[in-house]
Write a structure and sequence with these properties.
With 179 residues, the chain is of the alpha+beta class. The chain has helices spanning 7-16, 40-53, 109-122, and strands at residues 25-28, 31-34, 61-65, 69-72, 75-77, 81-85, 98-105, 127-132, 138-145, 148-155, 160-161, 171-172. It has one domain (38-175): tt1808, chain A, CATH 3.90.1570. The chain is built from three helices and twelve strands; from the N terminus they run αββαβββββαβββββ. The strands form four sheets. A six-stranded mixed β-sheet has the order 3-6-7-8-9-10. Strands 1-2 form a two-stranded antiparallel ribbon. A two-stranded antiparallel ribbon has the order 4-5. This is Putative restriction endonuclease domain-containing protein.
Length: 179
């Protein structure tokens, strides 16, 4: 027997200790979807991106790392990064206020480029980047719609990855100094 869960119910279970705070899953349309454990390469890329991006962020922007990104009452995702305007604040982070989401993909590439990208598009997230941990290839998605993203560009490690909302964050992934 299956049961649909709400974000509020999941949060209450975490608060009550029924679910561990560090359990890795996402809630999609009320369904709990387990996430793969993160590998060392994933973590090295994520930390290196944070070290690169945070000092280059324009003063009016902020980035949340591994936040529970609540998209509606029965859906939340756990992106590696979500960019937003400081004026909107983290407490008001929604699909409408998010500027971009970034996923570093180790063993979940098919999921991140498929179901997860379609979810981001359906909720209207303006820009989504999926970075392959092996090979440092980036997949940039823009122009969201109900059927998915209308613009998809593959960026090789030696090509510049440009985020439309903040040109100062441009980088070539091959030049990213991994920690």
């Amino acid at each position: 027997m299956r049961r649909r869960w709400s974000v509020a119910e999941i949060e209450a279970m975490v608060k009550a200790g029924v679910l561990a705070e560090d359990e890795r899953f996402e809630l999609i349309g009320g369904e709990v979807v387990p996430m793969s454990p993160k590998g060392l390469r994933h973590e090295r890329i994520k930390v290196s991106l944070a070290l690169y991006w945070v000092p280059r962020l324009p003063g009016d922007l902020a980035v949340a790392q591994e936040t529970t990104f609540r998209l509606d009452p029965d859906t939340f995702l756990e992106p590696d990064f979500v960019f937003f305007r400081r004026a909107d604040g983290l407490a008001n982070l929604t699909a409408e206020t998010a500027l971009a989401a970034v996923e570093v993909s180790d063993s979940s590439l098919v999921y991140d480029l498929g179901r997860k990208a379609r979810l981001y598009a359906a909720f209207g997230i303006r820009e989504v980047v999926v970075i392959e941990a092996d090979g440092l290839v980036a997949h940039l998605h823009r122009s969201p719609g109900p059927e998915g993203f209308r613009e998809k560009v593959t960026i090789r490690p030696d090509e510049p990855l440009r985020l439309g909302f903040a040109p100062t964050l441009e980088l070539r992934l091959r030049d990213l100094p991994l920690v």
